[in-house]
Write a structure and sequence with these properties.
296 residues, mainly beta, seven-stranded antiparallel β-sheet
Length: 296
């Protein structure tokens, strides 16, 4: 047994150590992230393995942890009233890798994940690219592919915090311009930080993921508005679905949510009914009766 005493930030930054065993070869671990209390992914002489610092279950979330080499002080708290506060720092959710705090559970198949943001605490202040939202990602690797219903939180420019759909194009591939955003201009009126509060949901239907947002109307979502979506070529059946918070700063930002739910869905493919083509014998004339579409 090897016991390491270190902060979470030091662990996530990577701690390397060497173990010798009876074949006089070495096992080097911690070249990426290091986990506390977990089992080895693999034992490879002369190789390496990856661990993660698990924060454990909180409310409906099976686990929470820092993604990437996010600084310390991220966390997730069950407030005991049906709300949950997720805190995060991190340099960004973009380009070469993601650095934020993530509370999640494993979800198989098609789903709709829904929540309401009820409070945002900027702490000592956040960078203009702070982000929070519902995320579905393949793994806890910093450069994992993901889709996200995103609420930007800029702090000093709340009127620019337009809700959006965000995604990474590739899985486990570093490089710039590999994240994408769909920003419908004027989706909702924004002027203050409180305008960022409200409802969001992320839905998966097969290979397609899309984000919707709604204003809060007396504790319930108003009209749902589609922001955008993206298609995955070959997504895994099981994904990590949860709430992500990153301040893009060394100051902690805390976002409190409630009404969290993840529901399995059985999407219905719209059916075309009432189709009555009439084709003349010379095939030069093609007429159709009125078309109607059924969605139930």
């Amino acid at each position: 047994r090897v016991t390491l005493e270190a902060t979470r930030g030091e662990l996530n930054a990577g701690i390397g150590y060497t173990l010798g065993y009876n074949q006089s070869e070495t096992l080097t671990f911690g070249t990426g992230q290091v986990a506390v209390g977990g089992a080895l992914d693999a034992v490879i002489p002369g190789g390496s393995t990856t661990f993660y610092v698990d924060g454990g279950a909180v409310g409906p979330f099976e686990n929470h942890l820092e993604i990437g080499n996010a600084p310390t002080n991220g966390g997730a708290v069950d407030n005991g009233d049906g709300s949950y506060s997720i805190s995060g720092i991190g340099t960004d959710i973009w380009d070469n890798g993601d650095f934020f705090h993530f509370a999640y559970l494993k979800v198989t198949g098609d789903f709709t994940a829904t929540t309401r943001i009820v409070n945002i605490d900027l702490g000592a202040g956040v960078n203009r690219w702070g982000r929070a939202g519902i995320m579905a990602r393949y793994s806890c690797d910093a450069n994992s592919k993901y889709s996200m219903a995103t609420q930007p939180i800029r702090g000093e420019a709340a009127e620019q915090d337009q809700k959006r759909h965000q995604s990474r194009r590739d899985h486990l591939v570093n490089g710039t311009t590999r994240d994408h955003q769909i920003v419908p201009d004027g989706l909702f009126p924004l002027a203050t930080l409180e305008d960022n509060y409200g409802w969001m949901r992320l839905t998966r239907v097969g290979r397609y993921f899309y984000s919707e947002f709604a204003l809060d109307v007396d504790g319930a979502p108003g009209e749902w508005v589609l922001s955008g979506g993206d298609t995955h070529l070959d997504p895994p059946d099981e994904m990590l679905v949860g709430f992500a918070v990153g301040s893009r700063d060394n100051n902690v930002m805390t976002v409190t949510i409630d009404n969290w739910s993840v529901e399995a869905i059985d999407p219905v493919i719209p059916a075309c009914t009432g189709n009555d083509p009439v084709i003349e014998e010379d095939f030069n004339v093609l007429t159709f009766a009125e078309l109607s579409f059924a969605t139930d």
